[in-house]
Input
Amino acid sequence: MYEYKNILIVRYGEISLKGMNKPYFERVLEGRIKSAISKLDLAEAQSLSIVRSDGLITVSGRDTELPVDEALLTKTILKVFGVASVSPAVRLEDKHIETIFAAAIDFMHKRVDERNASIGTGIGADKPVTFKIIGKRSDKSYPITSPDMSARVGEAVLNALEPKVKVDVIRPEIALNIHLRQREVFIYDEKFGGFGGLPLGTNGKGMTLLSGGIDSPVATWLMAKR
Output
């Protein structure tokens, strides 16, 4: 059995272009995320850990599972200006290929069960779930390349779950991402888009004049992200 932790991966866009000032923007964004979570007024949220690491922010609990409802936490973070996207993910500290195989198979098995439960006994219930693997190797010292990782994990998943699953690299129902980093591996299949822009408080104050049309509210919204 392998050790894992359910987390949220928080990505940002424009902040990564800020050069020498990037740490400042990252700190502000981290603070805004903490502030948004604290407004949930849940005792369990106090145990959450929010960490900046190698261009990403991760949100996790002390134990394997998140102490706060995953959907509620994701929705809350997505409302923070500066957040480009959020992905619920599994984090592995063991980067051995066999551990990645086992975690990917378990992840896919869970998704297949969820899909079949949503369909029930209706039309398409007996069809296999289509998938593909997207490997990404940020740790270039890792001996397996990104394309090879995609192929080997895909083969392992197919052998373990066939005939419940089938490979489709063009229009898969599930695109399973395997992201190998310096100290960990992230496995996820969903990416929810946020507002983007820059964190609140990193620029000066602004003022808007609202008219009776749609242009001024849209312009105000776009300026709020700046």
Observations:
- The two ends are 46 Å apart (CA to CA).
